[in-house]
Amino acid sequence: MPRRNPGRERPQQRKSTARHGERGDAFRCVGCRLDVSMIAPGTAHRNHCPHCLTSLHVDHRIPGDRRAACRGRMAALSVTVRQDGEWLIIHDCQSCGELSANRIAGDDNALALLRIAIRPLSDTRLPVSALLTL
Ligand SMILES: [Zn+2]
Ligand SMILES: [Zn+2]
């Protein structure tokens, strides 16, 4: 798991009194400002934006428990695949640094998922080209 790049640090978002426009059935994405319905195909708890995959640090241990006081912005850092083949997004909280794994939803942006999945391969220190010359 690659650690957070310190150069990528953004200034802390000030806690606004407008609670990210969150209602019971929808939320406003803190990444791209999309209004996102909580109803998602294939998952009981929509916890990230289907467009840019950004999430909010609201869950403490169990998805949907809403017990975290942090409420920091969680950026999609990486993807991983469970033994049963299900994809998970690794979210990285920009405020407290906590990592969490979240199931993808059926309507998540496939290009955004792929972009994260191949990010390690774009590291020029890896001899990816060696694979192609076999
Ligand atoms: Zn978004
Ligand atoms: Zn946090």
TrEMBL record:
Residues 1-12 have a biased composition (Basic and acidic residues). It comes from the Bacteria. InterPro entries: RNHCP. Residues 25-114 form the RNHCP domain. Pfam families: RNHCP (PF12647). Residues 1-22 are annotated as: Disordered. This is RNHCP domain-containing protein. It comes from Nonomuraea zeae.
